Amino acid sequence: MVQKIPTIIISEESQTQEVFKLFLSECEGYNFLASTNDFSKACDAIRELAKCLVIVDLSEYPDPGLNFITRISQEFSQCRILAFSDKPSVDLVVKVMRAGARDFLSMPVIKTKFIELLGDIYPEFFGQIKKRTKCRVMTVFSNKGGIGKTSIASNLALELAKITKENVALIDLNFQLGDITTFFDLKPSFNISYMLQNLDKINEDFLLSTLEKYKDTSLYILADPPYFKQADDISPKQISKLFDILKQTFSYVVVDTSAGFEGKTMTALENSDLILLVSIVNLPALRNCQRCLELFEKLGYDQNKIQILINRYMENDEIKAEDVEEVLGRKIFWKVPNNYFTMMSAINKGVPVADINPDSNVSRSYKELALIVSDSIYKRNLNYRKTHLSDD
């Protein structure tokens, strides 16, 4: 007999309650228990169960709903919380995850996506580990150097590993001026050149034993080759095959590239699910960003694949975010705030920025960026066109 998960639905709209109840009836592993619009009654019911799935509607009253989620996640750690709203925004999603919800859906909920999500939740609820079927590849790119690509790639990869607890690979494809090992103060035994010479031998055990694991996290780092001549011998075809192999082992692959459009970088871009196109707020950098967008359009890249990230952003800058969007003809996806002293301290000490000051604005920004691009949100059909702007 299938063990069922008792489920409570909380929403102001009776029609919404009925829709979720109908969807649940088609999922064998779930038992609809009750629906209500009263957080207090819901809390009493959860107290009797201690372990259940709670579906919370934040459309009408987000603040009371967030308070409820915080309370439930703190008092009943075995409960799984799924939040949804008809007004999704990056700010709301970040608040939801901070409060303790594991999943977020935007309204209207698509039935197939909802059932897929329940299929993911079920084995996790009973302590089973579900094998991932898809890896997400993210490349941090700019055709202009010196604007912080490596900082972004390094800190994003580490926060992804911390948040998801899944295996994350950070790949240094800047073969001439790679700095990732410096950012983490590492001296790896193996590098990408060695890996590419042994492609036929590579399996999951080989990868997890040869890539440099960062401290006690699930972040694995593949360093650039130490000699320029080794980089010359690497072909785009080898890079493409390496990506295919990495996807079988890692949940996320984060790539730092050189600032050009040579073959190996283009291979990384083509293999990416998400390209974070980095710029800073000055005219030369924005012109370069504009050229990149034009090239990506000619290459036929989907617009949703390329997202604009502004680094070292200052609210009081002469050029405003609205001006940048007008120049580029695209919404800004994320803004990493300028915090020179914290960033330089981290770089000089060879540690991630969270180790210097976890409460700094730049450290929080990296954590929230990792939340937004992680599968727990992105895969759930959250509409990116509604959520391009970060909380200011």
Please give the alpha-carbon distance between the first and last residues: 50 Å
* Share of β-strand residues: 15-25%
**Total helix count?**
18
> Would you identify the CATH architecture of the largest domain?
3-Layer(aba) Sandwich
Tell me the name of the CATH class of the largest domain. Alpha Beta
- Summed up, the domain count is 2
Chain-averaged pLDDT:
85
Helix content: 40-55%
Number of strands: 13
Structural class: alpha/beta
Strand order of the largest sheet: 8-9-7-10-6-11-12-13
The biggest sheet amounts to:
8 strands, mixed
| Unreliably modeled segments | 376-392
State the CATH topology of the largest domain.
Answer: Rossmann fold
CATH H level, superfamily name of the largest domain: P-loop containing nucleotide triphosphate hydrolases
Shape: globular
Radius of gyration computed on alpha carbons: 22 Å
Detailed description of the structure:
With 392 residues, the chain is α/β, with parallel strands linked by helices. The protein folds into 2 domains: 121 residues, Rossmann fold (3-Layer(aba) Sandwich), CATH 3.40.50; 251 residues, P-loop containing nucleotide triphosphate hydrolases (Rossmann fold, 3-Layer(aba) Sandwich), CATH 3.40.50.300. 45% of the residues lie in helices and 18% in strands. The N and C termini lie far apart (50 Å). The C terminus is likely disordered.
List strands and helices in order, with pairings:
Elements: E1 5-10, H1 14-25, E2 30-36, H2 39-49, E3 53-57, H3 62-75, E4 80-85, H4 90-99, E5 103-106, H5 111-125, E6 136-141, H6 149-164, E7 168-173, H7 180-183, H8 192-197, H9 204-210, E8 212-213, E9 219-222, H10 228-232, H11 236-247, E10 252-257, H12 263-270, E11 274-279, H13 283-298, E12 306-313, H14 321-328, E13 332-337, H15 340-349, H16 353-356, H17 361-373, H18 375-378
Parallel strand pairs: 1-2, 1-3, 3-4, 4-5, 6-10, 6-11, 7-9, 7-10, 11-12, 12-13
Antiparallel strand pairs: 8-9
